[in-house]
Amino acid sequence: MTILITGAAGFIGMHVAAALLERGERVVGIDNFTPYYSLELKRARIAHIEARYGDLFKFKDVDFGAAGALSTALTDVTIDRIVHLGAQPGVRYSLENPAAYIHSNISGHVNILELARHRAISHLVYASSSSVYGMRADTPFRVADRADAPISLYAATKRADELMSETYAHLYRIPQTGLRFFTVYGPWGRPDMAVWKFTEAVLQGRPIDVYNHGDMLRDFTFIDDIVNGVVLALDRPPADDHREKPGGFTTPHRLYNIGNNRPEQLTDLIRAIEAACGRKAQINLLPMQDGDVYQTFADIEDISRDLGFAPTTPMAVGIPAFVDWYREDWLKRA
After folding, report:
1. Which CATH fold would you assign to the domain 2-182+223-261+297-313?
2. With contact defined as beta carbons under 8 Å apart, do 292 and 150 qualify?
3. Are 282 and 207 in contact (CB under 8 A)?
4. Residue ranges of the domains in the chain?
5. Are 199 and 323 in contact (CB under 8 A)?
6. Which of 222, 303, 307, 311 is the most buried (most CB within 10 A)?
7. pLDDT of 291 higher than 90
8. N- to C-terminal Cα distance for the chain?
């Protein structure tokens, strides 16, 4: 049988595909190459996977936000599990182009749920976000905490995804696991994220914009740890046993935080990048941006207890790994 991965040209999607292919799974990846960030990077990710894994990996250029196109593209594909990582990301961009979030994150999520329903999928793992916690002051963020006060449209769409998934788990008993990701970084990462932007600026001798004057905390999580958590979740679908699960549901649906469980100051991130680059950063201090949250901090007790998830990569290891990839791989492609 075959695993479908949406957002396969994305950062996490590419790495999850590689991990599953590495153990011999067959994977169909879909993506529609939205120009939110570098299309060259997205195409390079797919080319990297295709070159390494050959016929085990099939790719289809399709917009899962368009129900008809999705159905047509998968007519001849038999799938038994789905890892739904595709979405319109970004907090700040949701202020500029809200329609993109409704199309991909709302309509697209429903389309994947319908696909899971009609294909009798054995497990749907989908991406949520730490942004659903909003401006909570008490930390760490726990799955049992209320998540009904989003401060960006992006966050609102991700919380809506969780609730729609619960509806489908209730009505159609589709086993589902929602993963609330916490600030993922690493090789092949996203150019709109702080680790990439800061590294690029430091190496080019340009100033970096640092919001809230550097007083922000993020639970930076290395990509290898995230992938391990996704695969652990995929391999162990929730039981339809009517017992309460993380997230408060009694359906075959659960929610987990997936983070490093160790928030870092933005200024500490900058120092780690400076050390890895061997250069000092020029810093442009700015006030907090609309839609941003002050801190993220994942309580991972549920996923650790249930699945054995245990992040192992500190920033002191992960940041040099990203900088090395950026210098030795990406810059040579540019």
Report:
1. Rossmann fold (3.40.50)
2. no
3. yes
4. 2-182+223-261+297-313
5. yes
6. 303
7. no
8. 37
Strand, helix or coil for residue 197? helix
**What is the model's pLDDT at position 122?**
98
d(CA 187, CA 202): 17
CA 115 – CA 82 distance, rounded (Å): 9
Q: Is 37 a catalytic residue?
A: no
Give the other-Cβ count within 10 Å of 232's Cβ.
19
Among 188, 216, 221, 192, which Cα is nearest to 324's?
A: 188
Q: What are the helix (H) ranges across the chain?
A: 11-22, 39-53, 67-73, 93-96, 98-101, 108-118, 153-172, 194-204, 223-235, 266-277, 301-307, 315-325, 331-333
DSSP 126-189: EEEEGGGGTT--SSSB-TTS-----SSHHHHHHHHHHHHHHHHHHHH---EEEEEE--EESTT-
* Candidates 37, 93, 126, 154; catalytic one: 154
Say if residues 88 and 155 touch (Cβ distance below 8 Å): no
Least confident of 210-214, 219-223, 260-264: 210-214
The 10s digit of each residue's pLDDT in 146-201 is: 999 999 999 999 999 999 999 999 999 999 999 999 999 999 999 999 999 999 99
